[in-house]
Amino acid sequence: MYLLNCLWLAFAILLAGSVLCLVSKRHKVNGPLAMISMAAAGLLAVFVAVQVWLNGPVTAGIDSLSIAGFPAVPVFTVDRLSALFLGLIGILSMASVLYTQGYLPHYKSEDPRRYYPPFLLFVLCMMAVVTVADLFYFLFFWEFMTLTSYFLVVYQRDNKKNLEAGFLYFFMTHVTSAGLILVTILFSGWTGSLSFTAIPEIYRQRPPPTRPC
Amino acid sequence: MFTLLLVLLFIPFIGAFVTAPLQQRKADVAAVIMAGAVMLAAISAIIWAGGGRFDYSLAGLPWLTVPFPLFGIQVDPLSSLMLLAITVVGFLIVLYSAGYMSELNKEHPTQAEKDRYYFFTLLFVGAMTGLVLSRNFFQIFLFWELTTLCSWGLISHKRSSVAVQAGFKAMVITAGAGLFFIAALLIMYVKTGSFEFSALGQLPPTLRLTAVIFLLIGAWGKSAQLPFSSWLPTAMEAPTPASAYLHAAAMVKAGVYLTARTIISSQAVPAQAGYLMGGLAVATMFFGLILYFFQDDLKRLLAFSTIAHLGYMFLGMSLGVAGSRLALQGGLLHLINHAFTKTLLFLAVGAISCATGTRSIKALSGLGRKMPVTAAAFIIGALSISGVPPFNIFWSKFFIIAGAIQLNSAWGWTVGLLAIVESLAGFAWFLAVVHRVFFGPASPAAAAAADPPPVMLIPLLVLMVLSLLSPVFGLAIITRIMGG
């Protein structure tokens, strides 16, 4: 359980960091704040990943966030597959924020408040996507990840090509999310649960397809 | 509790008459205090009620024989849900108006006739409060007609010929549809001798269907559903804060409330009426959607978006009649989510027109740099109204679509998939508008623009937060409505 508490602490740090980065317009304030938040959250993520890799999977839910009348419960599971991705996200995100400290000041006309908050939220969503074990919340974080990354794509908002790319990216990912929405709804109807662990049950209960002779 | 509800009911009316003789800053201060008092009284009543139902008799009419006193006050979870939207949005609108109705407003630079504006706004808050605290259909109808009068006063506020015509049109269409409400009341009284919500269930099946359809026609007129939609876009002649109130919490939501009250309290809506409601809701959603693409005026775009989103609410409720509790919850959740998000969008557009003197999408570009807070407000509103998580409307749209598909019928699948298509197309258009108006280099109209004063920014900031968090308290109240 303490490993998942570490993971949720990483989420909380990223959330708090994204809010704090809104306070100042100056990169000298914003950049280090983002770096500290990312380093703390990234190290926690790597720690969780290593522990899971060595000792096996952990799982726990936040029951207080469950929705009345809907079978979605935010359950997080870190197994070795998600640990691998969690570790990679932690390491690469720290590297990215470190690199940004020197790169972002080149965009003199742009406000860093439009970069760091969405970036930290984007990392939070990526970490949540690889660890959440409920289809509805997977969809939720997946879509939120798209939204935050869209703001990173259109960071240079005076550049027409960036805007076109941002529009295309956001629209296409939103359209394809319709498929995820349908799957989520269908699974919840079939099994009464949205847990990833319930998905194999559907196929066990359904008769195997007949092969043509 | 009884005293608190009485205070809640009468403060807005007292406020309207107190503010009526005042001018300029005095009118602002009095209106803000009164609207704030209404909001605090409503929140206190909701907390005190705690999801329970309180019903108090006041008086009757000696010449009208009915089993229970005709007039009274009732608060239950459904009225609590509406009260929250009416009073919180009402207060934010009044606060915003104190900055909007000024000489600094480039679109409508005047403080004249603030007295009349606040009179009708507070009267509107009172009419809506009375409507949701009503204990039977007869009482609802009285406040229903008062909302029509208030909307006429606000839509024709500028007194230009276009504004006067728009006010007249709104009154004729909504009052015309309201005649069917009267017909439904007559059927109920003649057959059951009562106007109680339960009277609908006592009618024989054929008459019950007729009465429900008559009530629905009244509701469709008020909520600008097809074929009564034409009054809503022309009602954009009202000052923008008044438009926001008309579209978000009052007037159009009265129709949704009447339908929800009929479904939940009478438990007697026939399935055929549900299918009719659902079919018309989907047609209205697509009618609104198609007209998005032809709008250059930001306010008219929002008007058609309102028409489409009211369709979502009716769709959710119609699926509730067909047996989906999830969709009914979604419809009710959409009511409160839309209230906050649409107010946010309207007030952001008001700030834009105030600063630039125009609402034309073609004339505006690069506002993001000039008005960062307003831009953030509009973008959050646009993403929310398009159903992008984590914002509020994602939850209600998801519940409606999930409820439709989980019915596992051809009808459920059809309307569920159509709702997904509408949502995606609406998202694309709002995203395009965001790119056009807020990104890129600043256009001449936007060159000298700046964010509005704090009195207008505070409502925007509060509504941004509510556009994220309204499902938290909305779902808690709706669980009570559903008997949880």
TrEMBL record, chain A:
<keyword id="KW-0560">Oxidoreductase</keyword>
<dbReference type="InterPro" id="IPR001750">
    <property type="entry name" value="ND/Mrp_TM"/>
</dbReference>
<keyword id="KW-0472">Membrane</keyword>
<dbReference type="GO" id="GO:0016491">
    <property type="term" value="F:oxidoreductase activity"/>
</dbReference>
<dbReference type="GO" id="GO:0005886">
    <property type="term" value="C:plasma membrane"/>
</dbReference>
<keyword id="KW-1133">Transmembrane helix</keyword>
<keyword id="KW-0812">Transmembrane</keyword>
<feature type="transmembrane region" description="Helical">
    <location>
        <begin position="83"/>
        <end position="103"/>
    </location>
</feature>
<feature type="transmembrane region" description="Helical">
    <location>
        <begin position="115"/>
        <end position="133"/>
    </location>
</feature>
<dbReference type="InterPro" id="IPR052175">
    <property type="entry name" value="ComplexI-like_HydComp"/>
</dbReference>
<feature type="transmembrane region" description="Helical">
    <location>
        <begin position="167"/>
        <end position="190"/>
    </location>
</feature>
<feature type="domain" description="NADH:quinone oxidoreductase/Mrp antiporter transmembrane">
    <location>
        <begin position="134"/>
        <end position="202"/>
    </location>
</feature>
<dbReference type="Pfam" id="PF00361">
    <property type="entry name" value="Proton_antipo_M"/>
</dbReference>
<feature type="transmembrane region" description="Helical">
    <location>
        <begin position="31"/>
        <end position="53"/>
    </location>
</feature>
<keyword id="KW-1003">Cell membrane</keyword>
<protein>
    <submittedName>
        <fullName>Hydrogenase-4 component B</fullName>
        <ecNumber>1.-.-.-</ecNumber>
    </submittedName>
</protein>
UniProtKB/TrEMBL annotation, chain B:
<feature type="transmembrane region" description="Helical">
    <location>
        <begin position="456"/>
        <end position="478"/>
    </location>
</feature>
<feature type="transmembrane region" description="Helical">
    <location>
        <begin position="242"/>
        <end position="260"/>
    </location>
</feature>
<feature type="transmembrane region" description="Helical">
    <location>
        <begin position="301"/>
        <end position="323"/>
    </location>
</feature>
<feature type="transmembrane region" description="Helical">
    <location>
        <begin position="168"/>
        <end position="190"/>
    </location>
</feature>
<keyword id="KW-1133">Transmembrane helix</keyword>
<feature type="transmembrane region" description="Helical">
    <location>
        <begin position="117"/>
        <end position="134"/>
    </location>
</feature>
<keyword id="KW-0472">Membrane</keyword>
<protein>
    <submittedName>
        <fullName>Na(+)/H(+) antiporter subunit A</fullName>
    </submittedName>
</protein>
<dbReference type="InterPro" id="IPR001516">
    <property type="entry name" value="Proton_antipo_N"/>
</dbReference>
<dbReference type="InterPro" id="IPR050616">
    <property type="entry name" value="CPA3_Na-H_Antiporter_A"/>
</dbReference>
<keyword id="KW-0812">Transmembrane</keyword>
<dbReference type="InterPro" id="IPR001750">
    <property type="entry name" value="ND/Mrp_TM"/>
</dbReference>
<feature type="transmembrane region" description="Helical">
    <location>
        <begin position="140"/>
        <end position="156"/>
    </location>
</feature>
<dbReference type="GO" id="GO:0012505">
    <property type="term" value="C:endomembrane system"/>
</dbReference>
<feature type="transmembrane region" description="Helical">
    <location>
        <begin position="79"/>
        <end position="96"/>
    </location>
</feature>
<feature type="domain" description="NADH:quinone oxidoreductase/Mrp antiporter transmembrane">
    <location>
        <begin position="134"/>
        <end position="420"/>
    </location>
</feature>
<feature type="transmembrane region" description="Helical">
    <location>
        <begin position="373"/>
        <end position="392"/>
    </location>
</feature>
<feature type="transmembrane region" description="Helical">
    <location>
        <begin position="29"/>
        <end position="49"/>
    </location>
</feature>
<feature type="domain" description="NADH-Ubiquinone oxidoreductase (complex I) chain 5 N-terminal">
    <location>
        <begin position="71"/>
        <end position="103"/>
    </location>
</feature>
<comment type="similarity">
    <text>Belongs to the CPA3 antiporters (TC 2.A.63) subunit A family.</text>
</comment>
<feature type="transmembrane region" description="Helical">
    <location>
        <begin position="272"/>
        <end position="294"/>
    </location>
</feature>
<feature type="transmembrane region" description="Helical">
    <location>
        <begin position="398"/>
        <end position="420"/>
    </location>
</feature>
